[in-house]
Amino acid sequence: MQVVILDSAEEMGEYGADEILRDIDAERLDVLGVATGSSPLPVYAALARRASPAVAGLTAFALDEYVGVAHDHPQSYHWVIHRDVTVPLGLDPARVHVPDGAASDLAAACSAYERQIADAGGVDLQILGIGGTGHIGFNEPTSSFGSRTRIKTLTPQTRRDNARFFATPEDVPVHCVTQGLGTIMAAGRILLFASGLGKAAAVARAVEGPLSSMCPGSILQLHEHATVVLDREAASELTLTEYYRFVFDNRPDRHDE
Question: What pTM did the predictor assign?
Answer without folding.
Answer: 0.94
